[in-house]
Amino acid sequence: MNNSGFWKDKKVFVTGATGLLGSWLVDSLLKEKVLVVALIRDFVPSSNLFISKNNEKINTVSGCLEDYFVIERTLNEYEIDTVFHLGAQTIVKTANRSPLSTFEANIKGTWNLLEACRNSKLVQRIVVASSDKAYGSHPSLPYSEDMPLRGEHPYDVSKSCADLIAQAYFKTYKLPLAVTRCGNIFGGGDLNFNRIVPGTIKSLLENEPPVIRSDGSYTRDYFYVKDAVSACFLVAEHLERDEVKGQSFNFSNESPLSVLGLVKIITGLMKAKIETKILNISSGEIKHQYLSSQKSKTVLNWQAEFSIEQGLVETIDWYKNFFNM
User: Fold this and answer.
1) Which residues are catalytic?
2) How many CA within 13 A on the CB side of residue 110?
3) Is 134 contained in some domain?
4) Hey, which residues does 35 pair with through a beta bridge?
5) Which of 126, 235, 262, 303 could anchor a disulfide with 177, C-beta 3.0 to 4.6 Å?
6) Tell me: the pLDDT tens digits for 149-189?
7) Single pTM value for the model
């Protein structure tokens, strides 16, 4: 948290609270003793939200983003003033297998959320979590916020669309929102083990070779979840500024890594002596993606607190505890 007094007596609605970013964001909100209301579609007992028992400290609404009236009722009955829209179908392979459910959750879910906020008399600030994937493929990198959004594959397209819908709601209705675009967020609590960080850690803990689906040369930002939480809060705290309203902000530690390079760092930190298995079968993904955070540094005075190595050390410890439970 950057401004503790700011959060006094706030009533906050969180979508995606059982996910990686959402569970850590809820934890930080609870430390500020704000009223937290979370929209939860599925009961996921192994989620960090439930493992931490934070689910017992918040109000939960059962429902999904595709149901407009559930969101409208929640905003009204709980008198919500702040919204963090993090909920989405986030797995690229799932999106490739089932684009319609991904479009429903990520695109329709976003317009439902924003329309409900527009019809609320109380919502004062909305942070919409987009992604570096919204940019699609560009000939020059790093991505900056003024680059067009042109996703190509189902997940990327869903994020481009959701991002543009958010911008439309600001430009047309002056809805008080801003958009965050983070690199690949990692941290304890990510239970999607087909992702490279949790998948590699799990394999090494089980004395099995880590598996890379691509040829290992794909380049990405890897961004620790606690830095992502801080970024979300910082944007919310500054949303009354004209330089922030309706704007998009990239967040990255600006240290892009190849997939193979990341696996080597994890292997070194875990002192493992196991060779990595490179499958080279990946498809439907852009080869190189990484962000410039210059705008966030200039406008918000933001900077990452964790290096990739520091974040990975905490993440590895989380999974060691998780698998020993």
Assistant:
1) 155
2) 25
3) yes
4) 11
5) 126
6) 999 999 999 999 999 999 999 999 999 999 999 999 999 99
7) 0.96
